[in-house]
Amino acid sequence: MTDIRAEIDTGEAGFGDYVALLKPRVMSLVVFTALVGLLVAPVQVHPMVALAAILFIALGAGASGALNMWWDADIDGVMRRTSGRPIPAGRVQPGEALGLGLALSGLAVVMLGLAANLLAAALLAFTIFFYAVVYSMWLKRSTPQNIVIGGAAGAFPPVIGWAVATGGVSLEPALMFALILMWTPPHFWALALFMKSDYHKARVPMLTVTHGRRATRAHVLAYTVALAPVALAAGFTQIGGPVYLATAVVVNALFLRGAWRIWRRDEAAAEADDYAVEKSFFRFSLVYLFLHFGALLAEAVLAPLSLATVVATIGGM
């Protein structure tokens, strides 16, 4: 990996810089989906075990972020969107990020194994490896399918949460995994449509760079169409229900509408309004998963209440 802008004056790093290395925005999604995976599982977990598990999953996610920033520091310094990150800005040395990432990885995996079970720990270890090595070191710079395959790294947290509770894996966590996996490409390709120059400068083979924006628009629509039935499928399992199904229908209808609008656009129209449609689709994609997983959580909360109502009604007859 090339040296990071030797001409930058290295200032003293603050606490916020080390927090930024952990990618707290990404961590928040990881924590939420892992928590939902744990809470919707058919096995109750002691609150202290659940709290410890989520903490160590969060640490594992942060470790992945630090390792990713260490490896990608050269291209982060080229891209406008990431040039202010702690390493390319010169506030944190690459070795510090590497050390932090490795230390947190070991701590998170070992402690999750002790707090929960070995399967959950193994899944967390594989997730960190997949994001740091398979995606960051290999896929990201070698193929336009980087996001398609690499999206698996972000799809594992609900599976880990489910494994914490049950010690196993079944159809429900597989569908939660598939939901995130299929959502990832249209989410990132929408970003790439209005950030294409960044990926060109960094020589990252994003689909917009290798195949052009017209092909990228078609891929956004195709993956959004494929995503909808995956999202709806979870509603017909034991973790779904009317709240989730209603949410999934509305949210995916809106998402499909946005993808259709993106597909119909030409570059002249997009440039004329500063990619307003693409930016709107991307912003909506940020809440897409939170709405789906929030609906799953609502089903888990409402199901016992519904059962209690039925029992009380029968008892009063």
Mean pLDDT: 90
Relevant CATH superfamily of the largest domain: UbiA prenyltransferase
Number of domains: 2
Could you say which structural class the secondary elements and strand pairing correspond to? Answer: mainly alpha
Q: Uncertain regions: pLDDT < 50 for 5+ in a row? A: 1-10, 306-314
Main sheet overview: none
Key attributes of the depicted protein:
Tetracycline Repressor, domain 2; 317 residues; 16 helices; disordered N terminus; 0% strand; 2 domains; mainly alpha
Structure characterization notes:
With 317 residues, the chain is an all-alpha fold. The protein has two domains: 13-168, UbiA prenyltransferase (Tetracycline Repressor, domain 2), CATH 1.10.357; 170-317. Helix content is 76%, strand content 0%. It has helices at residues 15-21, 24-39, 47-71, 73-76, 94-115, 118-139, 146-150, 152-155, 157-166, 171-194, 196-202, 207-210, 212-233, 242-264, 267-272, 276-315. Helix 2 runs parallel beside helix 9 (157-166), helix 10 (171-194) packs antiparallel against helix 13 (212-233) and helix 10 packs antiparallel against helix 16 (276-315). It is flat and about 55 Å long. It starts with 14 loop residues before the first helix and ends with a helix. Residues 1-10 and 306-314 have low confidence and may be disordered.
Short account of what is shown:
The chain has 317 residues and is mainly alpha-helical.
Produce the secondary structure layout:
Layout (H helix, E strand, L loop, with lengths): L14 H7 L2 H16 L7 H25 L1 H4 L17 H22 L2 H22 L6 H5 L1 H4 L1 H10 L4 H24 L1 H7 L4 H4 L1 H22 L8 H23 L2 H6 L3 H40 L2
Helix pairs in contact: 2-3, 2-9, 2-16, 3-5, 3-6, 3-9, 5-6, 6-9, 9-10, 10-13, 10-16, 13-14, 14-16
